[in-house]
Structures are given as structure tokens and as C-alpha cells.
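[Meeting: bench + compute handoff]

Bench side (C.D.) handed over the final construct sequence. Compute side (W.E.) agreed to return the predicted structure before the next meeting so the bench team could plan truncations. Sequence as handed over:
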Amino acid sequence: MVIKIRKKIPFTIKLTGCGGVNHLITKLTSQYVSPYSNSMLADINNAQRGFGVQIYSTNDIALIPNDANSYYSVQDSSTPDTREANFYAVLSDDGKGGNHYRSI
């Protein structure tokens, strides 16, 4: 039996020196995109078939690598000098099968 575990691994991008900025847009670009699913990142050699990493915003929307229409946007009237953008990564099935799911 294969048990599929989708554990969210949170991470934060912290920006400093942003005083005067009231709109933050984050996009995901990478040369390491899974050849089996354009919505996830692959390892640098594409050796780990069967899974990849997906990046999500805190509102559960996936950021699609290298897609100009996929972005995370935060806008407010305050203009603090430091901003934080919170995301999480998930190890996911890429559709190519394999019995190598595990918790990370």
C-alpha cells in the first residue's frame, strides 16, 4: 500500500527597504520545472520521477513556474519598510507514478 502524504512546509520571503511600496507581486521562475507537470518544480537532474514540489500562497493558490499569469499579489495602503510574503511548499505526485511517497 502506498500512503500519499501532502505536508505543507511553510517559508517566508522577507523584504527590507520597501518603504513607500504598497503593492507586492511575487512570481515563480525556475529552469527546473517538472517535464511531467508544468505546475511543479523538479530536482536539478529530473532524476526523481514520480514527484515534484509545488509552491502555494497562503490562500492555497499554486504559483505556476514561468507563467506570466500566475502570481501572488498583496496590496494595502500602509507602506512599511519591511514586508513578509508567506508561502508553503508541498511534495506532490507528478503523474508519472512510482511508489516513493514519504513524509518530508
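W.E. noted at the follow-up: The chain has one domain: 9-93. C.D. will use this when planning the next construct.
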